[in-house]
Amino acid sequence: MSEHAVMKRPLGRHEALELMASAGVGRVVVSEGALPAVHLVAFALDRECVVFRAPTDSPLAKAALDTVVAFQADRIDRAAQTGWTSTVTGHASRVRDASAVAHLDRLLPDIDGDGAETVWIRVTTEFVTGLVAERRDHTGRPAGPDLPYARKPPPVA
Description:
Elements: E1 5-10, H1 13-21, E2 25-32, E3 35-46, E4 49-55, H2 59-63, E5 67-77, E6 82-95, H3 98-107, E7 118-123, E8 127-136
């Protein structure tokens, strides 16, 4: 092994969700017209569920209604060749309970502020996978501050 080799390792459920929670932006994958469609969204984790807003009449809001979707977030440093990726697969459903919506509005304020009507969508985390690429020294220990999660991510809500 070279002095600072890049090593890849799988992430466990808890670590994958912790890293995902630190991303803030991710990709939801739905089926639109029997084809995969990827949508970039601001999101948060709430009790191990991914939550995000979508415009009420958007293709995303329609496609993510009571179906199975995938959600992915990552942080990659191409120059250092380090980073992580986390993916969840689960059931998407619209959040309709007024107290739950109020909680989510506080958790992830609407940053667009364009006045468009939105709906909240919750994705369960039934399957969680992840991978981290990190630099290791000759002993196999993490090498230096270029770790993809050197800053402690916020705890999963």
